[in-house]
Write a structure and sequence with these properties.
heterodimer; A: 448 residues; alpha+beta; 6-stranded antiparallel β-sheet; 13 helices; 38% helix; B: 497 residues; two-stranded antiparallel sheet; 2% strand; elongated
Chain lengths: 448, 497
């Protein structure tokens, strides 16, 4: 079966920064390569470098992995990106050929490392038994210390919230950014990064246009609710505890998540969004959809400067997989535990017939977990419309909902629909849609 | 019972200024309000707010909107380009190889396809920023593109079909493009449309529309243009004169010939000289025909009478003089060079050749140093290359700067013969020892736009051996090769579609 075909935009999204992308574009032409080839789900080439020997570059396509003999510390380096770009634009420039020796060596080394890692992860069952007592005790101590640090931080937050209500937030509009930023920094110190992120987001709310007072009050109220909930953590049901911990930013080890039960189903990859957060941290949200259970799932991936995001889950493709969900009242964030089939393109986007049903679904989720911020839904046959006050989505039931002002591709969306109903995938945050992908010409196109 | 707005106002003012008292009520929310913690006002306010927030979020319903949707785009009958071709457009819109965009658009129109919808916004924006691209863009956006263009003020230029019935209702930049498109298809109809609304057009619009008629100007336009000579706007009058002067059979040219008869003569058989008689003051009839009174505009330096004669001669096809006296343009220009009125004659014949392009006159003027690229580009396409090739072979250029400027002046796709000439010239220059000839270095990227693609291997084999000795050449040559290769690929992708 055919490999997922990579578009140049998808390859460009792999670049760790803009200068790598630019350098890669300059190398993405056959004249810069001494040799090129493809075969057995690998592409490879030897690139002219500044040294005497050309650099050996290879990419494994499924699952994606990169290799280059250049001394660059960036990953993927410009040679790998260039090779991949060239392949995405002109695959015919890479003739089919048997794998060269150095590609075979790389492939075997990788397989060996993967086998070792797999063996290691099944071993803890035997090793853990010996020092279980000691490790759990130290773990418990650490957890307790962390809980106390967070509690102290939340006390401070509560005080800050009440001060704000006491003085009234009419003055909030004129507060400098540092007002919010300082509290966010203290929350980071208190090991509550989730709360710190929410605090930073609130900084912009005071100047976000009409209705800002209500939006700010809603956010502050939910923060207050979170603090109160944290204080009563032990008394709450397990799922509620998980919701609160997740909102505070208490991270859970992947092993713990994978140990829980998963959902084995046919999952469609419907959308992806990459955001640049503070200090060079990039966050990738990959949205999945289970048509059977009418259920969304979210896989989060993080990369600091110089690291690469996991780009193996391409929107527009589906797989049969078991997803392990993070604990909580509403299962949403997940990890892919096992993939049973390779990716294959899906031919139909099963969208909600009206916006109302998608919104009702979200309301249901939020009613159970008040701190849930956003979920993605496929929508069928909506019409994007632009007018002087912004852009909107209309559906057959004459419902009209706004598209978020932060969406930058309204014109592309309008051009693709031409005023006709189209199927698309968008994130809903309770107030506005953020379109992620559009179904056009029989496939899913990412709006990037 | 506290309600949401009350909570909001209390939070805005602050409990310091306006104390908040929790008060319960009926209904599920009201009942819960009874459980607010007493004592701490701020905590109570926040908790009540949290209650309402959850209530609102969990019960949110999308509003109904009964306004009718705008008219959707009509279906396109022209099929879109392939994904592969769309990738080339993406690169050019990103700024890579954007010099090849005009050629790509022209080729797309030639094969009768259209651009894919998701690229329309960026392409339309390019047209908004670069007016020269507008006409080619409008021809390849299809009905979807025209529909989309109506939504954005900057894209209005692209929002109409070239339908004569639209002439009266369209406004702004789109109207000019409409006239241009109709003039290309049916010149007589374009003129008739313009005439039909002429009286009601604004003065500055009239001048712009009249300039459109330069495309395909013919004798049929003469009656209308004659009437424009009486127009109140000077710009319109000047444009009309310029257009009429391009028609050798027009009455304006006839009048100019009649006036000039006695003023310019070839005297003497053994040693001929050109005798110039300066005319009297221009009268009203002359002014109507576009002969402006006063001294010549800078940088020309001519008195009033000389300038009047110059303008007059500039309307007469230069071939009139060479045929009348049976002398070649070279001979006449040499004679003119010797005469006192050298500047007058050169300038007059230069302008005349611009209006009545003719290869021999153009070559003669260039060889005498009286004119430059504008003459070559005024010639019909088929004559441009022979003109430049003739000049190069006659070694008319003293230094490489001029030579390469001239080679670049041919701004149309080159023939194979021309391409080979350029290959040889570049080869000669890179073969010279360093320091490098900067002119070739500067000219190479421009060459790549028009260079015939099939000669790429020849160019490579001719230049590569020399380039290897000079590293600085390599990057320039690489750029040249890259643009050529890109052009090759983009044209192949369009052909395969």
């Amino acid at each position: 079966m055919a490999l997922p075909t990579w578009t140049p935009e998808q390859v460009a999204a792999l670049a760790p920064d803009a200068s790598s992308h630019k350098a890669a574009e300059g190398l993405a032409t056959p004249r810069k390569w001494v040799s090129l080839g493809q075969g057995a789900e690998f592409i490879w080439g030897e690139c002219h470098g500044s040294g005497s020997k050309p650099y050996q570059t290879a990419v494994s396509l499924s699952p994606p992995a990169f290799h280059c003999s250049c001394p660059s510390r960036k990953f993927p380096c410009k040679h790998t990106l260039a090779l991949f770009l060239l392949f995405s634009r002109q695959p015919q420039q890479l003739p089919a050929a048997p794998l060269p020796d150095w590609v075979i060596t790389w492939r075997d080394n990788r397989a060996a490392r993967a086998a070792k890692a797999a063996a290691k992860s099944s071993q803890p069952a035997t090793n853990a038994a010996t020092d279980t007592a000691a490790s759990t005790e130290s773990q418990a101590k650490r957890a307790e210390k962390r809980a106390q640090t967070i509690a102290n931080g939340l006390d401070e937050l509560e005080q800050w919230l009440q001060d704000l209500i006491r003085s009234g937030f009419a003055a909030a509009q004129s507060r400098p950014y540092a007002y919010w930023q300082n509290m966010a920094a203290r929350l980071v110190d208190a090991q509550a990064p989730g709360l710190a992120r929410q605090m930073r987001q609130m900084a912009g709310l005071a100047n976000s246009g009409a209705g800002w007072e209500e939006r700010l009050l809603q956010r502050l109220a939910l923060l207050h609710l979170l603090v109160q909930g944290y204080r009563r953590l032990e008394a709450l049901p397990t799922e509620r505890q998980a919701d609160i911990r997740a909102a505070v930013g208490w991270s859970i080890k992947q092993e713990e998540v994978l140990a829980g039960t998963g959902t084995h189903a046919r999952w469609l990859l419907i959308g992806r969004r990459i955001e640049e957060e503070e200090e060079g941290l990039r966050v990738q949200r990959t949205w999945l959809w289970n048509p059977q259970g009418n259920q969304p799932a979210l896989i989060l991936d993080f990369a600091y400067r110089g690291q690469t995001l996991d780009i193996s889950l391409l929107p527009g493709y589906e797989m049969e997989a078991e997803l392990s969900f993070y604990p909580g009242s509403v299962p949403l964030r997940a990890i892919c535990k096992t993939r049973f089939t390779p990716l294959r393109p899906f031919s139909h986007l099963p969208g909600h017939p009206t916006q109302a049903t998608a919104v009702a679904r979200f309301n249901n989720m939020v009613a159970q977990n008040p701190w849930l911020e956003v979920a993605a839904f496929p929508l069928a046959q909506v019409v994007p419309v632009l007018d002087s006050s912004g852009s909107y989505l209309y559906d057959a039931a004459q419902n009209r909902l706004p598209i978020a002002p932060s969406f930058t591709h309204s014109w592309e969306l309008l051009a693709l629909s031409g005023g006709h109903p189209i199927d698309l995938v968008a994130e809903w945050d309770g107030a506005a849609w953020l379109p992620l992908s559009v179904w056009a010409n029989g496939r899913l196109a990412i709006l990037s | 019972m506290n309600d949401w707005l009350q909570l909001r106002n209390a939070a805005l003012l602050g409990t310091d200024r306006a104390p908040f008292t929790p008060s319960a009520g009926e209904g599920p929310v009201g009942a819960l309000l009874a459980h607010l913690p007493p004592g701490n006002q701020e905590a109570a306010l926040l908790t009540a707010a949290a209650l309402y927030t959850q209530y609102q979020r969990a019960g949110f319903r999308p509003p109904q909107e009964a306004t009718p949707l705008p008219q959707p785009a009509p279906p396109d009958d022209v099929s879109p380009i392939s994904e592969q071709a769309a990738l080339h457009l993406a690169q050019m819109l990103d700024g890579r190889f954007s010099e090849a965009l005009p050629e790509w658009l022209a080729q797309l129109q030639a094969i009768g396809r259209r651009v894919r919808p998701q690229w329309l916004p960026r392409l339309l924006t390019q047209g908004a920023q670069q007016p020269a691209l507008r006409l080619p863009i409008v021809q390849v956006i299809g009905k979807r593109g025209r529909w989309l263009a109506a939504w954005q003020p900057g894209w209005q230029y692209a929002s109409i079909t070239p339908d004569p019935a639209q002439w009266e209702v369209t406004t702004g930049a789109a109207r000019l493009l409409l006239l241009q498109q109709i003039r290309q298809a049916d010149p007589a109809q374009a003129r008739a449309l313009l005439q039909s609304t002429w009286q009601s057009e604004k003065a500055e619009d009239r001048a712009a529309f009249l300039t459109c008629l330069q495309e395909g100007v013919s004798q049929g336009d003469e009656p209308f243009l004659e009437s424009c000579l009486d127009d109140r706007s000077k710009k319109v009058q000047i444009t009309a004169v310029d257009l009429l002067a391009r028609l050798p059979q027009s009455q304006l040219v006839g009048r100019m010939i009649a006036r000039a008869q006695g003023l310019l003569a070839l005297k003497g058989l053994l040693r001929p000289t050109l005798a110039v008689t300066l005319p009297n003051q221009p009268n009203d009839a002359w002014q109507r025909d576009g002969i402006q009174p006063g001294t010549a505009p800078a940088p020309l330096q001519m008195g009033e009478k000389s300038w009047a004669l110059c303008q007059m001669l500039a309307c007469i096809p230069p071939t009139f003089w060479s045929e009348r006296w049976g002398k070649s343009p070279d001979t006449l220009l040499t004679l003119a060079a010797r005469s006192e009125q050298r500047q007058l004659l050169f300038e007059a014949w230069r302008r005349a050749t611009l209006r009545h392009p003719q290869q021999e006159w153009a070559a003669a003027l260039i060889a005498q140093g009286a004119a430059a690229f504008e003459l070559v580009n005024a010639l019909p396409a088929a004559q441009r290359e022979p003109c430049i090739i003739g000049l190069v072979q006659a070694k008319a250029f003293s230094d490489s700067a001029t030579l390469f400027d001239w080679l670049r002046a041919c701004q149309q796709p080159w023939s194979v013969a021309y391409g080979r000439l350029v290959i040889r010239q570049v080869q000669q220059h890179i073969a010279k020892p360093p320091p490098l000839d900067r002119q070739v270095w500067l000219a190479l990227p421009d060459f790549a736009r028009y260079f015939p693609i099939q000669l790429l291997p020849e160019a490579q084999s001719a230049w590569q051996p020399h380039a290897e000795t000079a590293v600085a050449w390599q990057s320039r040559l690489d750029q040249f090769m890259e643009l050529l290769t890109f052009r090759q690929e983009m044209l192949a992708a369009l052909a395969a579609a």
